[in-house]
Amino acid sequence: MRNIIRIAFLVSIALVVSEDVEAAEPEQIHLAANGNKGEMVIQWGTIEDTWNFCPSSNNVEYGFDSDNLNFTKSGSSDMYLWNTCTHTVILTELEPNMTYYYRVGGDGEWSDIFSFVTLEENPERIVVGAIADHGTSSNAQETTNNMENEDMDLVIHAGDLSYANGAGSGNGIGDQSVWDEYQNQIENVASRTPHMYAPGNHEEDAEPYGFDAYESRFFNPGPNSFWYSFDFEFIHFISISAEHDYEPGSSQYSWLLNDLEEANENRENVPWIVIFAHRPMYSSNGDGDGHGSDIEFREAMEILLYDFQVDLAVWGHDHHYERTYPVFEENVYSNNSGTMTDPYYKPGATIHIVAGMSGRSAYDGLVEPKPAWSAYREVAYGYTIFEATPTSINYKFIRNSDGNVADDFWIINTLEVDLPIEIPNNRTTNETDDETIIDQIKELNYNSFALTTAIVALTAIFNLKVRKK
Ligand SMILES: [Fe+2]
Question: How far is the CA of 317 from the centre of ligand 1 (A)?
């Protein structure tokens, strides 16, 4: 059916005669990251009078002074079965810790002037926003407005972006103008902070487009729009997709295995690994079919997250906020509170976040009782944001309704001893007599101190005996 509709669209496009087509006004300005220091990807849309080709220009003028945009860079453009053209220009050799002003377009059609700030040469910390299941509702707009007030270096989005999925159209045809509306709605944030996306189910279900809009409108550093990775200072970010084959043997699985191997070997330079994708491996939301923990996805890929000690996994799909304890195969690895005074020290397993509360209608069907692996959950609109240094991550969920920090936790990865990583035997947070990871750390530190003291004492005695001789 999809192919028939596609062919019909292609035929109708071929019938469009494009004469005297002029450049269109740039809109939907947004930034992306490509993993290279000193570079910034700038994208924007133009709504054209033709479906055949992209007549508008692909230029960026930029500089340190909004009155003097003395540098120019050109790029490329792309269209899909719609008349929105997406332009991409990659700025290179940017200086650290500078405000760059820029405008996009050309041929008499230029955007307003926007700006972004480059990272310091060696920043002590970076701030990352993380959302999912956004859309264009008033709640979604409130989230965007609140995020405008944050000073973020990057935003990751775990899928279901615009909801241009045709659900309300009555015929299943995805209204692609919803993408334009969405991208204009987030322009104030996305034009100054790079945004990186993972694909959700609603990126695909707009007949006859499938993932075409998602692939055409957003930059990715490769190998494709669905699974890709990039370094951003202290963090190796990975986007994966439960909308595609993820079983062992699939190209996605093989790619992830290889990417994680390399990232894990590079911990000395990039200490954290954060994965983001749409369907949650852990969620205690029971609101309808297809929600809650995606067990198949988890059974296929969680082992990779554990084996390579992925620090954080950010998901969407369920429209609430949830944080797990460090967990693998539903076994909890640390029941520390995660607070500043009792953080997750080298947790031993991945901490999972559901961040699907950014605007799409809330799901309030949380299952009871709360699973042992669930540390905190709340049904409220808002956004999450975390501050990372090479040794710590402080993660927060900010509620829209009152602007308060609803959840706040810490992960610390600095310890001089490695923890014994063993799978606890059905350990749960309710087993209070269990030794926590922090107790194990204390014990290891104590043993190490005792051993060092013994060696020093024996050496001193030995030296004394040598001297007497
Ligand atoms: Fe979804």
Answer: 4
Q: What is the pLDDT of residues 243-284, one digit of tens each?
A: 999 999 999 999 999 999 999 999 999 999 999 999 999 999
Cα(256)–Cα(297) distance, integer angstroms = 13
- d(Cα 116, Cα 450) in Å, to the nearest integer? 53
Distance of CA 290 from the midpoint of ligand 1 (Å): 9
Q: Which two tokens stand for residue 26?
A: 């740039």
- Determine contact, residues 271/391, Cβ cutoff 8 Å: yes
Residue spans per domain, the chain = 123-412, 437-469
With a cut of 70, say whether residue 218 has pLDDT above it.
yes
Residue at 162: amino acid letter: S
Alpha carbon distance 337, 296 (integer Å) = 29
In CATH, the architecture of 123-412 is 4-Layer Sandwich (3.60)
Taking the centre of ligand 1 as the mean of its atom positions, its distance from the CA of residue 219, in whole angstroms, is 21
Query: Of 195, 78, 208, which is closest to residue 132 (Cα–Cα)?
Result: 195
Using DSSP bridges, classify how beta strands 272-276 and 235-239 pair: parallel, antiparallel or unpaired.
parallel
pLDDT, average across residues 2-10: 47
Q: Name which of 277-286, 323-332, 360-369, 411-420 the model is least confident about.
A: 411-420
Name the DSSP class of 95.
Answer: P
- Between CA 417 and CA 452 the distance in angstroms is 13
Q: How far is the CA of 159 from the centre of ligand 1 (A)?
A: 7
CA of 315 to the centre of ligand 1 (A): 10
Phi and psi of 235, rounded to 5°? -125, 130
Q: How far apart are CA 4 and CA 66, in angstroms?
A: 50
Strands 321-324 and 84-91: unpaired
